[in-house]
Amino acid sequence: MRRLKPRHIQTRLTLWLLASVLVLVALFWLVTARAPVVLTENYVVDRLAHDAEVLILGVDPTTDSPRLDPAYANPIYERPYSGHYYQIDVGGTALRSRSLWDFDFQPAQLESFPGTYHATGPAEQPLLVYADRIQKEDTWIEVHVAEDLSALGERIDTFRWRFAIVTLILLGIMLVAQRLIVRASLRPLDRVRRDCRRLEAGEIERLDEHVPPELQPMVEEINHLQDAMQRRLSRSRKALGNLAHALKTPITLIDQVLQQSRDELPTEAAERLAEGVSRMRRITDRELRHARMAGEAHGGQRFEVERELPRLLGMFRHLHPEKTFTHRVDCPAGAFLRADREDMYELFGNLLDNAAKWAESRIHVEIIRAEDGWRIDVSDDGPGVPTDSLQELSRRGTRLDESRDGHGLGLAIVREIVELYRGSLSFSRSPDLGGLGVEVWLP
After folding, report:
1. Which CATH class is domain 202-299?
2. What pLDDT sits at residue 187?
3. Treating both helix axes as pointing N-terminal to C-terminal, what angle do 150-201 and 9-57 enclose, rounded to 10 degrees?
4. Selecting from 2.20.140, 3.40.1000, 3.30.450, 3.30.70, what CATH number does the domain 9-154 have?
5. DSSP string covering 32-63, please?
6. Cα 345 versus chain centre, distance
7. Does residue 359 register a pLDDT over 50?
8. What rounded mean pLDDT belongs to the chain?
9. Could you tell me the strand order of the sheet in which 424-429 lies?
10. CA 296 from chain center: how many Å?
11. What is the pTM of this model?
């Protein structure tokens, strides 16, 4: 079963508000469209009821031939097809208005009086009819008074069209205003999203907690997780540095005892012990060097190339005082890598440590911004690595590979960091300096 892609909150709010507005507008339209008809018909019925009372007063039912006194009839009932009509039934005798002319008006049979109904009059006129039945002088008089609603209907239709146009304009304004209100209401979410991207890029250490109460728990929880990760990362790095520092003294003691007892041990065993001690010393020196590079920096901060690389190169000058070399750094102005600052310290630290260890006098660092990421080239003018050995450096290594003399020190950590960021690592002979060239690509 195919899963539907979830909609954005803004889209959901807009659709629900749009549906509610349309329902309200539809109900408002029905009420407003019906209200003029009801009000005007009630007004017409009141007027027809008054005319019916006057007409009944003008009827004399005592004569053999009942008649209506013309003084009680409005002159409009005398003009043919005037739109105002009446028909009076007095004891079986029908008295009709002259305005009906030759039209045969058939009154409706009502169950109760007074009452109203709609009928069709002369020239297909829509009539509203008021009917009443009153006993006068022991004679039942039934009167039906009608009025043409054509002109009134046209005016109501005109009003409806104008009202519809105004309603559509107002509806459009409401929809635009609603969209703006939804966007303004969700603006804090956009700010939190931007802060999350800045947090990922290392531009900030925590999310801004000055947010609406609805977002407060989420932001506080993210900050809590960020703080917990920073504490764990800091403890891990400090613990590793402390361990390396604590092992330095026992390793020195073992080396001293080994040197004193070398004559008492078999030659092969003494060499194996000396190699193991030397390996442990290099590992502890490397971890202490990493701890010095890390300093008090916070994880997650972005790596600013122009500021950090000169500091690293200056530090390696002090770590290798026996050498005098120059370095050149080529990178775009204001370049920074959207990666964890400590990871980049590890990566550049190991690459520069390798280069500083084997360089004769020059180190070249080049950082190039590509469309799909960053390319980092670190090369030196040292002896380099034989071509047939470059493939061995390109293979996945372990930390034990770093303990061997020669190129490869720290390259296992470099590979792990590169793979963590889904990049690539390759080795070659530098065409400019002649030593080892290391190329890293980070997406």
Report:
1. mainly alpha
2. 80
3. 160
4. 3.30.450
5. HHHHHHHHHHHHHHHHHHHHHHHHHHTEETTS
6. 35
7. yes
8. 77
9. 326-330, 362-370, 373-380, 436-442, 424-429
10. 36
11. 0.44
Range(s) within the chain of domains with CATH label 1.10.287 = 202-299
pLDDT, tens digit, 9 for 90 and up, residues 269-304: 777 777 777 777 777 766 666 555 554 444 455 677
HEC secondary structure over 204-269: CCCCCCCCCCCCHHHHHHHHHHHHHHHHHHHHHHHHHHHHHHHHHHHHHHHHHHHHHCHHHCCHHH
Predicted pLDDT of residue 398: 38
Share above pLDDT 70 across residues of the chain, in percent, rounded to a whole number: 82
Q: How far apart are CA 401 and CA 386, in angstroms?
A: 17
| Architecture label for domain 302-443 | 2-Layer Sandwich (3.30)
**What residues pair up with 367 in beta bridges, in sequence order?**
376
Token representation of residue 259: 């040197």
How far apart, in whole angstroms, are the C-alpha atoms of residue 315 and residue 317? Answer: 5
Q: How many CB atoms lie within 10 A of CB 47?
A: 14
Cβ neighbourhood burial of 171 (10 Å; 0-12, 13-18, 19+): middle
Residue whose token pair is 């028909």: 87
Which residues make beta-bridge pairs with 134?
Answer: 141
For the chain, first and last CA: distance in Å? 35
Residue ranges matching CATH 3.30.450 in the chain: 9-154
> With bands split at pLDDT 50, 70 and 90, how would you rate the model's confidence at 396?
very low
197-246 pLDDT, tens digit per residue, is: 877 766 777 787 777 787 778 878 887 787 777 777 666 666 666 676 66
Judge contact between 84 and 99, C-beta under 8 A: yes
Sequence-ordered list of residues with C-beta below 8 angstroms from that of 199, at least 6 positions apart, any chain: 205, 206, 207, 226, 300
